[in-house]
## 1
Amino acid sequence: MKDPSLYVLKKIQLKETKIKQQLSAIKEAKIMSDLEEHPNVIKFYTSFVENDALHILMEYAPKGDLYKVSYNFFQMLIIINLINFRF
């Protein structure tokens, strides 16, 4: 069950990043704000710029982001395959 009182504030320094990365961060916030609410998508609450940084307030994901979860999953598959290959 999701705890609605847990949030994540992603902070992206704009002043210290290249234009391409700045545009990517702004695009990320825009895409998240346009997404319909769905149980498999991290909920977006708001975004704002303060002190040369873009802040994106979103739902907390206790297992991390999709990259971390998929990376761990594929590492586990590799280990299982190595074990099965040896026997």
## 2
Amino acid sequence: MHNDTGLLQEFDYETTTSYSLTVMVRNSVLPNFIETTNVTITIRDTNDNAPVFSVPGGYAITVPEAAIIQRPVGTVVATDADGGINGTVITLYSVLLSCS
């Protein structure tokens, strides 16, 4: 929320998941007639962040010549900055050796 205008700015679920504010109304004819209520604005998350591998620039995996086919030879990890279900990624990947 902008400090000077009170206007809501761009929402980002990962920064702020909800806003609470008090709204006041006043009768223009009878200024002492005032009513207030509390309002909660809940931000719904969108999938706006891509997964990121934990090693920038890529991984280097060395495989021995006698490595067994279809066995893991290395691991890479990725994370996602989104919250909730949108931030859920399979965070562990195995690199399998195969014949081609």
